[in-house]
Write a structure and sequence with these properties.
Layout lengths: L13 H6 L1 H16 L4 H23 L2 E5 L2 E6 L5 E6 L3 E8 L1 H6 L1 E8 L5 E8 H16 L11 E5 L2 H9 L2 H19 L2 H28 L3 E5 L2 E6 L4 E7 L3 E8 L8 E8 L17 E8 H11 L26 E4 L3 E6 L4 E7 L3 E7 L2 H6 L1 E8 L7 E6 H20 L1
Antiparallel strand pairs: 1-2, 2-3, 4-5, 4-10, 5-6, 7-8, 8-9, 9-10, 11-12, 11-16, 12-13, 14-15, 15-16, 17-18, 18-19
Helix pairs in contact: 2-3, 6-8, 7-8
Length: 424
């Protein structure tokens, strides 16, 4: 079935992929019921009715959803009783991703996600045939950057490929893995000593163990075979074992960059590089939408690899050379030695962290607001904190515990630099 007037529909199997685990669960329950026969015939008929109803609802959802490109906009219409028609300006595209869950890969389908800036929200086309999704992504990127609509996808230059052994090592030295080991040891010791209390503790630990195992699996799947490449339209990031993702971050759309060095990774010289962009896909069926809000461009890499990527994301980034006054040690005794900040005409940088070292860069063109905050302890110590807020969600530079008088001068200077950067 085709859509009229140049409209396009999603793939007819999209409802099955959206159902995901629910479809597999129905098959696991439904097939043995039919195979058993006998007195289970009515149960099988009931399951069949439920399955047919869900299939009908999925078909209706597919039938009332359509999309097309209108000039420099992507238009998506959906809804049966309450019709929704949304236009997404391609000039506000922050990133374009292709996502392929396990079932979608089996069926040869791909989800296309557009992360929008401003009030554009986010757009998702789930699901399209894989080849069509790649062609459409290249076309949308060309429209977003002002290139020719039918221009071929430019070649890329691979910058970093993360080895699987490094991914496994980083997971073994992560918080969820250590917590998992502690729970396993406590459960084994408790069961070895016996007693009803030990069995109760072991039973309560099972949900925690399962949750930790799932978290570790998601991190491994997200970091497996991670490849970062440079292309004319921006930075491309590919990764995944079962569910694969291919993300494209157009140049100049990065709101902030964050470098994290966990304490257990530092002996190996490992770090994690994350990027914050304005906009994310808020899909209720996506259980990990909060995790994907902050994008791990480099899930685990060396400091040299991170520095090369930072140079692409934030060219000529300044160094955090200024330190808070010594009296600020009374307020932040654990992280005082890590506190530092700096800025120039284009970018601001700040470091913090108690155990892990966290360094964040914010381009001044992306600063949405500047705040000077001074708590009661800071007032007594004559220090203040300057916050640089962006349209991103989780990363922003904060100049912590700056001298009181210097904070006022820095605030005025940053306001002037941010205005000049936006005009430029």
């Amino acid at each position: 079935m085709t859509a009229p007037e140049g409209w396009h529909r999603l793939h007819p199997l999209s409802p099955a992929v959206r159902a995901g685990r629910l479809t597999i669960a129905f098959l696991i329950i439904f097939v043995p019921t039919f195979a058993g026969g006998g007195s289970g015939g009515w149960d099988a008929a009931g399951h069949l009715v439920v399955l047919l109803v869900l299939a009908a609802l999925g078909f209706v959802a597919w039938l009332v959803t359509r999309w097309r490109i209108e000039g420099a906009h992507l238009r998506i219409e959906t809804g049966l009783l309450r019709r929704s028609s949304r236009r997404f300006p391609l000039s506000q595209v922050q990133a374009i991703d292709t996502v392929r869950p396990g079932l979608a890969r089996i069926l040869g389908l791909t989800e296309l996600r557009l992360r929008m800036g401003g009030t554009g929200g986010a757009a998702s086309l789930a699901y399209l045939p894989h080849r069509q999704a790649l062609v459409l992504r290249a076309r949308l990127l060309a429209l977003a950057t002002g290139a020719q609509e039918d221009a071929p996808e430019p070649l890329e230059r691979v910058l970093v490929t993360v080895p699987v052994r490094r991914v496994l090592g980083s997971l073994a030295l992560s918080g969820p893995a250590l917590l998992l080991v502690v729970y396993v040891v406590a459960t084994v010791v408790g069961l070895a000593h016996g007693g009803s209390a030990a069995h109760a503790v072991a039973g309560s630990a099972v949900p925690v163990l399962l949750g930790d195992a799932v978290a570790l699996w998601r991190r491994f799947n997200r970091a497996y075979n991670a490849t970062i490449a440079a292309a004319p339209e921006g930075l491309r990031v590919r990764s995944g074992l079962v569910e694969t993702t291919a993300e494209t971050i157009p140049e100049g759309r990065v709101q902030a960059v964050q470098l994290v060095e966990p304490v257990l990774w530092r002996p190996f010289g490992w770090c994690r590089l994350e990027v914050d962009v304005a906009g994310r896909v808020h899909d209720r069926s996506d259980e990990r939408h909060d995790e994907r809000q902050l994008r791990p461009v480099l899930p685990v890499g060396t400091r040299a690899e991170a520095a090369a990527l930072i140079e692409l994301l934030v060219p000529a980034a300044p160094q955090p050379r200024r330190k808070p006054p010594p009296r600020a040690r009374w307020k932040s005794p654990l992280r005082y030695r890590r506190l530092a900040f700096g800025y120039d005409e284009r970018c601001a940088v700040a470091t913090t962290g108690r155990l892990a070292r966290i360094e964040a860069w914010v381009p001044l063109t992306k600063v949405q607001s500047l705040r000077r905050v001074q708590g009661p302890v800071q007032r007594r110590l004559r220090v203040a904190t300057l916050h640089l807020d962006t349209a991103g969600k989780r990363v922003g530079a904060a100049f912590r515990d700056v001298d009181d008088d210097e904070s006022l001068r820095d605030l005025d200077r940053l306001i002037e630099l941010a205005r000049a950067a936006r005009r430029a």
